[in-house]
Amino acid sequence: MSENRVDEYRRRFVAALGGAAAVATVAPGFILREAHAAGEVAAKDPAQAVTSAKRWGMLIDVTRLTDGGRGMVAACKKEHGWDNNPHSAPEQKAHWARVVKVTDKLTKNSFELPVMCQHCEQPPCVDVCPTGASMKRADGIVQVNKHICIGCRYCMMACPYKARSFVHEHLVDQKMHSPRGIGTVESCNLCVHRVDNGQLPACVQAAPDAVTFGDLNDPNSTISQKLKAMGGKQIRADLNLNTGVRYYGI
């Protein structure tokens, strides 16, 4: 990949951080950075700045997922371009989302559900990151700044959902809106590039009858109304992480 293409990926990634960092390229492969807390730096249009007024989340109705969430995972792969190298060893493949089978030991009843980054209010991955690469935006979206991720994998060990993976593989056919980097960690970012453009995450669009996306801070939003009426469970609620992803039917 040419240096010009690499710089273009970098510029698009920084723009997607919602004003979280100011970056200047001084030479190919070298970047100067002035970091700020997410939401402190206004975007060009102040009305579009990321703030804590919203907290994005999703409610997944497992009873309406006829495929266990495989369509959601496929949509995520297509949108972000992960797991597209046929020569990668199975144990080294990235996974931004995966289907998990759960079986009750007593009744033997089984069901499947998609598991991805749960976008915790207090993310353990952010707490342990030594460089600040693991970050949570003011609107609740957790993501990784690939420019300062050193691949230590502390965040992978800290995540109770096994939602993060390390990029071992040679990268091909990268997406301009979702840059990746060998030697870094990655995970679901709620399709932040789509959310900032007023669109739904790809996985939500792939399962509109089963997944609701919206503002958890707005009591009148569809997702808040459904959670109030139906309820919604957290995976490992005992950890008190207040996840942004909730499930019905588990």
Strand order of the largest sheet: 10-3-11
- Would you report the number of β strands? 11
Assigned CATH architecture: 2-Layer Sandwich
**N-to-C span:** 44 Å
Order of helices and strands: HEEEHEEHEEHEEHHEHE
Broad structural category = alpha+beta
CATH class: Alpha Beta
The unreliable regions are 1-7, 16-44
Beta-strand portion reads 15-25%
Tell me, briefly, the overall form: globular
CATH topology descriptor: Alpha-Beta Plaits
Rg calculated over all Cα atoms: 18 Å
- Mean pLDDT comes to 82
* Number of helices, where a helix is a run of at least 4 consecutive DSSP H or I residues: 7
Number of domains: 1
Helicity, as a percent range = 10-25%
Characterize the main sheet.
3 strands, mixed
Write the SSE topology.
Layout: H1 3-16, E1 21-27, E2 30-35, E3 56-61, H2 70-80, E4 97-103, E5 110-116, H3 124-128, E6 134-136, E7 142-144, H4 154-158, E8 165-166, E9 185-186, H5 192-195, H6 202-206, E10 211-215, H7 222-230, E11 245-248
Parallel strand pairs: 3-11
Antiparallel strand pairs: 1-2, 3-10, 4-5, 6-7, 8-9
What does this structure look like?
With 250 residues, the protein is an alpha+beta fold. The chain has one domain: Alpha-Beta Plaits (2-Layer Sandwich). It contains seven helices and eleven strands. The protein has a three-stranded mixed beta sheet with strand order 10-3-11. A hairpin with a 2-residue loop joins strand 1 and strand 2. It is globular. 33% of the residues are buried. The N terminus is likely disordered.
